[in-house]
Amino acid sequence: MTLLWLILIPFIGGLLCWQADRFGDLLPRWIALATMLVELAITLGVWFHGDYHLGNAGMAGEALRWSMEWRAAWIPRFGIDVHLALDGLSLVLIALTGLLGVLAVLCSWHEIMRRVGFFHLNLLWILGGVVGVFLAIDLFLFFFFWEMMLVPMYFLIALWGHSGSEGRTRIRAATKFFIYTQASGLLMLVAILGLVFAHHAHSGEYTFAYADLMQTPLSESTAMWLMLGFFVAFAVKLPVVPLHGWLPDAHAQAPTAGSVDLAGILLKTAAYGMLRFALPLFPEASQAFAPVAMTLGLIGIFYGALLACGQQDIKRLIAYTSIAHMGFVLIGIYAGTQLALQGVVLMMVAHAFSASGLFILSGQLYERLGTRDMRQMGGLWGRLGSLPGFSLCFVAASLGMPGTANFLGEFLILFGSFPVAPWVVVVASIGLVLAAIYSLLLMQRVHFGPAQGEGRFADLDTREYVMMLSLLGLVLLFGLYPQPLLDTTGAAMSEVQRLFGAASLSTTLLTGTP
Amino acid sequence: MSLLPLTFLLPLAGTLILTLSRGRLGAQSCAAVGVASVGLAALVTAWVGWRFLTDGGQGIGITLWTWVAIGDFQPTIGLSLDGLSLTMLGIVTGVGFLIHLFAVWYMQGDAGVRRFYAYMNLFVASMLLLVLADNLLLLYLGWEGVGLCSYLLIGYYYRTAANGWAAFKAFIVTRLGDVFLALGLFLLFRELGTLDIGEILARAPQVWQEGAWQARLAALLILGGALGKSAQLPLHTWLADAMAGPTPVSALIHAATMVTAGVYLIARMHGIFALAPEVLTLVALIGALTLLMAGFAALAQTDIKRVLAYSTMSQIGYMFLALGVGAYQAAIFHLMTHAFFKALLFLSAGAVIVSCHHEQDMRRLGGLWQKLPLPYAGFLVGGAALAALPLITAGFFSKDEILWEVLAAGQGGLLLAGLAGAVLTSLYTVRLIIGTFHGVAKSENARRADAGRGLLHGLPLVVLATLSTFLGAWIHPPLSGVLPAGPGADAHGAGHTLLALLAAAVSLGGVAVAIWLFHARRHWLAQQVADGWPARLWQLWHRAWGFDAAYDRLFVRPYRGLVRVLHSDLIDRLLLLAAWLSWALHRGLSGTQTGKLRLYASTMVAGVALVLLVLVLRG
């Protein structure tokens, strides 16, 4: 039942926020905060009481091992269940969702002033949908939650967003986001149905259950087509160049909380989807596709970095850096070694922290300066209290400074991918230099250089300071002692590696060594 | 439990206190925290070093915790102390402490001292982690950490955009080298299955034959990292611009410690280089080229800090030369003496700069030797050591040892380069001292120079000056157990004496020529370089052989062009074609909705006719 509650709590909290609107603006905020804190507390409780230690992985037999499972029939005729299950990977990502949910509520405290109740309804429903995505192992249910998160996100951007320059309106950004993700979601639905029919043709019964569908024997070409259906859906969300077009617009136009959710969690649902579905369901096809996927990752690293350098809007810059970072994640996923996969997990968590940190900081900048255009900034160091110092720290994290979790994530991915695909790693490493270029460019344009005016802006208040300090603390904690996290996801990742790695025996890819 | 971790924890604590104080500490307290943390670290180092030496040189290894554990990948946060790291530890904390002390005088009245000491302490902590790390991943942490602090301190005076860009350049160029180092780490881990330095050195000869391609590649990649950090050809362009930072920063980071990290790294990984003799030769070659290139460049600078920057490059070139012929101990010995006399020179330069109201161009200085006796003395002693004046200076002993090892290795060409470099060193050193202190004061700032006073100003200069004389050369780093002996270790004899005499003659001769040239014949010299080919040559040297311009054309401009071409996200525009297409279709189709009944009726009839036709033809 705990799993069901994990999903229901945000939805119920959202409804309460909506209704509490009539009692003033403050009540919805507190309800939302309390909801996310409860969610986080439950997740942490599950974490402490469960055993996710790596030791379990060694005995990984044929049956999938879930730490918790909950199941109820939904549409028995088609074999559709409400089937939820939790392992280390989903646990970590749900904890992340809870934490970033708290931050999203906190950073909207003074930013959102209109329709506060409805705003929090949308915010919490996004989070509820995301938790559903992380828990569902019935493919129909998964698709349900996958589509479910889009709608409130659309409203979040369309109703509370900022309108950018050059005719970039928030409605346009929201529509673009919706069409991109909706269209790709349809592809995934087709792929899911294709898989179900293939299973039906083989066994004579309809089922959407993950464990059953995994056993479906598929011809090589069918597997490839179905895998591509999943891949494209996830690739849009990750995002993978060339399917990234929605991301910069959505980020730039979304309110801060929306950006935090987008960068922090929504992008991670894509990586999760690849790890949970695309790879395990179609190991051979994925293995054959790996060179392409890694190449796309490389393109993402370079394209994102180059575009980040050319932006004037600080949020667009950060959005493009996300594309570059997700390129590393894509490479790590398709390298498929234990080291690389663990690096992917760490990278996802690290990027969630650092990108959210940067987005919250640019939100705070916007609240003080009234602009996100970097041409109107410069020389802000010394005029903004501790904000520039925090910017520096998160910029350092984003460029992969050792000591931060981002460094370990990137390096684990690269260490893990090197034996499999050395040339990919060589090229990707150049991305480390590009990361330094765009990160420091941000510092230089915003905080250094001649000041454009005298006088100081308001320093961070306690809420903002505590928010940034705790994010920073987490970045450093997981940068210096990531073991609790890695131990939690170890079993789940070696499962992925086992399924995916078994396929690699039959196919050889970009290997440098025989 | 050894006190060793305290050496880096104390400066780290200093950083944390300064950072988290959020302006609650006054300038005085900030300086006190900043200096005390490094001072205490120096005391701990002294204690640890004394224990180490009295224990007969037993190495210490401390593992604080396992950083990451995934399968075989188990790097730790672990420190190890041996003769080499102890030497570095002593330099970093000892010289570092003196520089911090001097910085209190130098930075007084600056509004941002909290930031300054926070960065400086973080630098010391990172540098200590770099030299103490027992595995390459932790070394890399320190390696990048010092890079970040270097960036922050070069751009310390952030209001001037140029400083920020200098810092930017320094970080990016060194990061380029760091990528090579990172690739080296990936390769070493794949081939040897460990990142522990001791184990790597033990396993490498078992796994690889001498000259194996993996060993060569690993050595090359490590070298790439070292080149960036130590500002050697071709990744040297950042160091001269790095002088934008406060002068104590230049002394600490860009002379005594960080820039020598590359030398440390190669010495530390000597076992890999031993398996790749060709790469080692390349190290020597790069060192020789850099020392000549930078020597000429130093000759043609007018900013006193830029002279010193190029001289640093040149001296590190000597260290690379020594490494390249397998004389690791000589390289580290020169690293140590260089840290003493170059820190002295930079601090003296700092004293001149502050006394002359932030004037640092030789064309506007001069005639200062009576007004600023202590910095003048510092320049004389430091300059003598730099030019390696025989017997009385520390620099003579270390440089002589390098030259001897090069000769013993049978590298005649490289020896010539080293001797030529010695002449250049004498020339630019004398030119620097004459230009700064002699002649007439060439600007109001120089005429109104106020000498610095106080213990904070004087003590660091005096101590460093003492260490720059032959007294400093008496400090023998305990390296024999760690680093292999050089090629000339057991062949001291007539050859060595002869070479020492030759080197002494070269250095003295250089000084004599330089005094004649830059003092007695200075007007003649000025006329000579006024136009024609000497002027062009002078310009070429002044721009340090035009590397900056070339790199600008080769890398920076294409990159910026690419950014400009892409900045509106071309791929996104391409995908928007789909949206445009559906919009165009919409326009086309809605154009048929005219509301004219006759058109609708005729279209309908035509449609029916078409369908019937198809049916008939198929039927």
Please provide a written account of the structure.
The complex is a heterodimer of chains A (514) and B (619). By secondary structure, chain A is mostly helical. Chain A has 19 helices and two strands. Chain A has helices at residues 2-20, 26-49, 88-107, 116-135, 139-148, 150-160, 170-203, 210-214, 220-237, 246-253, 256-281, 283-309, 314-335, 338-369, 387-398, 405-417, 422-446, 462-480, 483-504; strands at 68-75, 80-86. In chain A, strand 1 (68-75) and strand 2 (80-86) form a beta hairpin. The N and C termini of chain A lie far apart (49 Å). Mean pLDDT of chain A is 87; it is low at 54-62 and 505-514. Chain B is mainly α. Chain B has a domain at 568-618. The longest helix of chain B is centred in the first third of the chain and has 32 residues, at 161-192. The interface between A and B is large, with 58 and 54 residues.
Largest interface pair: A-B, 58 and 54 residues
Taken as a percent bin, the fraction of beta residues of chain A is under 5%
Give the strand order, joined by hyphens, for the main sheet of chain B.
1-2
Order of helices and strands of chain B: HHEEHHHHHHHHHHHHHHHHHHHHHHHHH
How are the strands of the largest sheet of chain A arranged?
1-2
**How many E strands of chain B?**
2
Structural Rg of chain B? 30 Å
Annotation keywords:
heterodimer, A: 514 residues, mainly alpha, disordered C terminus, B: mainly alpha
Summarize the structure.
The complex is a heterodimer of chains A (514) and B (619). Chain A has 514 residues and is mainly alpha-helical.
Please render the helix and strand layout as text.
The complex is a heterodimer of chains A (514) and B (619).
Chain A: H1 2-20, H2 26-49, E1 68-75, E2 80-86, H3 88-107, H4 116-135, H5 139-148, H6 150-160, H7 170-203, H8 210-214, H9 220-237, H10 246-253, H11 256-281, H12 283-309, H13 314-335, H14 338-369, H15 387-398, H16 405-417, H17 422-446, H18 462-480, H19 483-504
Antiparallel strand pairs in A: 1-2
Helix pairs in contact in A: 1-2, 1-4, 2-3, 2-4, 3-4, 3-11, 3-14, 3-19, 4-5, 4-6, 4-11, 5-7, 6-7, 7-9, 7-10, 9-11, 9-12, 10-13, 11-12, 11-13, 11-14, 11-19, 12-13, 12-17, 12-19, 13-14, 13-16, 13-17, 14-15, 14-16, 14-18, 14-19, 15-17, 15-18, 16-18
Chain B: H1 4-20, H2 27-54, E1 60-66, E2 76-81, H3 83-106, H4 113-132, H5 136-154, H6 161-192, H7 197-207, H8 213-229, H9 238-241, H10 247-256, H11 261-268, H12 270-274, H13 277-299, H14 304-324, H15 328-355, H16 373-386, H17 394-408, H18 412-437, H19 444-447, H20 455-468, H21 470-473, H22 494-520, H23 522-528, H24 532-542, H25 547-566, H26 570-590, H27 597-618
Antiparallel strand pairs in B: 1-2
Helix pairs in contact in B: 1-2, 1-4, 2-3, 2-4, 3-4, 3-10, 3-15, 3-20, 4-5, 5-6, 5-10, 6-8, 8-11, 8-13, 10-15, 13-14, 13-18, 14-15, 14-17, 14-18, 15-16, 15-17, 15-20, 16-18, 16-20, 17-18, 17-22, 18-22
